[in-house]
Design a protein that fits this description.
Elements (H helix, E strand, L loop, with lengths): L1 H27 L5 H26 L4 H28 L6 H12 L3 H12 L2 H26 L9 H4 L2 H15 L5 H12 L1 H14 L3 H6 L1 H24 L4 H12 L5 H8 L4 H26 L3
Helix pairs in contact: 1-5, 1-10, 1-15, 2-8, 2-9, 2-10, 3-4, 3-6, 3-12, 3-13, 4-6, 4-12, 5-6, 5-10, 5-13, 6-8, 6-13, 12-13, 12-15, 13-15, 14-15
């Protein structure tokens, strides 16, 4: 059973990275360079991803199990980020500069939940995977706009509490939950366009992701010891610990798989963008995200397959 699950998940991970390869080639051939991809990120984050999440909530069957699952997913997402913050705080202490420490901590705690975990959950689990992972994306945004920018800015950025709620990821969940509970009869003329727009989230996100890989310094990715340590924390230690904790708390099935996918995803691609925004080392942020993404091709299938047998 483990090997069968491993094969299925590895196949889905491989397909997503093949799509990322399209973005890699498009950047190298200057057809779709990284600067253009940055503009598409705004489209993805502000419009396409929220529509995909809301559409999933609208079409998810209302059951007691799904209502309970939403609550459990919120607790799992919160626990994963809190544990990650504790691990990052211990692992990256005063021997690093404040700015360097901020990047490593951000990269350790915050995963690529929206642009890799969500597409993988869709591929492996289906709409139910997106349903649960959407809650994780909402929690990701809360942590990113508070702890994340505080750390990556070298403790200089002011935390805007409005952004905890007023961001596309959180708003889409806030809109989606009442729609899921009320189960409205959405007309086909509205539902189908939402389905079409939401369906491009996964491939477009991976193409954009590929352009960022194309601009990484692969020499640094191979030789920097700190990058391997960060990738170990992000890809192995945190997800395995959380998988064990989730299972001990009685989380099973697709919910366990969805939370494990989110917890085991590589470093968020916006690590480099936020580093640049707050005058930190954007190259280092890009290198961490790139290395953890490459290594996740091996680690994610193994860890997610474990979620189906523990």
């Amino acid at each position: 059973m483990f090997l069968e699950n491993l094969k299925t998940i590895a196949l889905n991970v491989g397909i997503l990275y093949l799509i990322a390869g399209v973005g890699f080639i498009a950047d190298k051939t200057k057809i779709f360079p990284k600067d253009s991809a940055k503009k598409v990120i705004d489209l993805l984050f502000n419009i396409i991803l929220p529509i995909a999440i809301i559409h999933t909530f609208i079409n998810m069957e209302y059951t007691a199990e799904h209502v309970k699952g939403l609550f459990v997913a919120f607790l799992c997402a919160a626990a994963t980020h809190i544990f990650g913050i504790a691990v990052a705080g211990i692992a990256f202490g005063k021997r690093y500069s404040t700015l360097e420490r901020g990047i490593y901590r951000y990269a350790t705690v915050l995963s690529n939940a929206a642009f890799l975990a969500l597409p993988l959950a869709k591929s492996v689990i289906g709409d139910e995977g997106v349903f649960y992972c959407a809650v994780y994306v909402g929690m990701f945004n809360i942590i990113a706009f508070t702890y994340g920018i505080f750390e990556i800015s070298g403790h200089k950025a002011k935390i805007d509490l409005k952004k905890i709620i007023l961001n596309p990821g959180s708003i889409s969940v806030i809109i989606g939950i009442p729609l899921f509970l009320l189960q409205p009869d959405v007309p086909y003329i509205i539902d189908y366009p939402m389905q079409l727009v939401g369906s491009i989230n996964s491939p477009l996100a991976m193409i954009v992701f590929g352009t960022f890989l194309a601009n990484s310094n692969f020499k640094h990715i191979i030789i920097k010891k700190e990058l391997y340590f960060t990738s170990f924390l992000r890809l192995i230690l945190i997800p395995l610990c959380m998988l064990g904790l989730f299972r001990l708390c009685g989380v099973t099935g697709d919910l366990l798989a969805a939370m494990t996918i989110s917890a085991s995803a590589p470093t968020a691609t916006n690590t480099a963008m936020y580093a640049a925004k707050f005058d930190n080392d954007a190259a280092l942020g890009s290198e961490i995200a790139a290395q953890s993404s490459i290594l996740s091709i091996v680690t994610m299938p193994v860890i997610v397959a474990l979620a189906y047998i523990v």
